Amino acid sequence: MPYCKITENDFEKYKLKPGDKLLIYLKQERDKDEIKEPRIVAVYEAVSEVFRDSSRIFKTPKGMGNETFPLRIRLKPIKIFDKPVEFKPLIPELKFITNKQKWSGHLMGKAMRDIPEDDYRLIVSSAK
């Protein structure tokens, strides 16, 4: 079963609980000469309460020392998109992005972000 790693700060701020839906967003990245644009690749549902487990199952990002991300929540896949949903074309319609010119600031440095139900429905309905 997949897990979501949660920082202490995210736990306090978002209070994830069973039944919550999580959209999986991948930021823009370069793979050799190809640029992969930001995209949403799946919807998962939280199926457990947050729990503590310090066993190392996640790769620690550079600059985070020996972090094991001990706060976790179990997830089940709801929909893994056959074709990722491109994020940039949705920006003009997404309500949670208030600065359409500097939209990345709404996501940068955040492991999680609450979004309005309308934005969730727009993203999911854009999946093919």
Automatic annotation (TrEMBL):
Lineage: Archaea, Methanobacteriati, Methanobacteriota, Archaeoglobi, Archaeoglobales
NCBIfam families for this protein: PRK00809.1
CDD domains linked: EVE-like
TM regions (residue ranges): none
Listed name of the protein: EVE domain-containing protein
A UniProt-annotated Pfam family: EVE
Domain EVE stretches: 9-125
Domain of life: Archaea
Residues making up the signal peptide according to the UniProt record: none
